Amino acid sequence: MKRYLYLSLTPEALIASMLPPEDFGKYLAVGTKKRTRGQAIFFEINPNFESNYFNLDDIEKRCIPNKDGSPKRSKYLAIYRVLEHVPLNTINNLYLVTDDGRVLEIKKKEYTATEEDGELHLYQQLAPVNPIVVSKLNPIKFCKYLTATEHPVSVPKIAFFELILNGLADDPQNAPLNNLPYSNVDHLRDCLIGLKEKESKPNKTVIRKTNADVMFRTVKNGLFVGDNKQTLYFPLPDKSELEGKYYAWWKSALTQGFNY
Asked: Can you give the pTM of this predicted structure?
């Protein structure tokens, strides 16, 4: 049986499996008997990936079929400092899985910044740390800032989503909320106002640590993962595709997280 390598971001882990991506995503979300529900976000990694940090030499011995001949669903290879030690050039497609097991595959694309000068941003980080922050920096600059070793606090790599702010991105003081589905919108507005008033400060933390799932319906553009030299971009399909080609996934994403 073919073996796959996956980099999970929620939680961060390197996993070997005999399941192809869609089946693996369903397994992570709902298990084998559908007695559990949970969102999953993961990358498929080049199966020829070699590493001096991870023990990958005996995957064929560790990731083997079950006694009944069924494929091995998951064999955890690492759960600590995983993203840091996976080269960006080994990362293939991204998979977003809703909590009822709907899987969306997303391929890499070049990112082109479209924001106006002075526009603010909202980022939900996934790994290796997971605060929610507001920023004056566009996604590429934000990634470079967080991974710059000359700063007192930095990380080797970072994975994050940019989330919608609507009018708050330009005018956090006066813009209407327009049904933004965040439970802490008043605090979010305060953070945006405070950030805009401090010219020298590029970022401000909204939530120090979040265990909540990503509300896929609030993603502005897509997922970014990178270091100080390179950023990969995985764009969410546009609205017409979500409402057409990917309707089943989108319908599930729209109903997810209303209890936040």
From this structure: 0.93
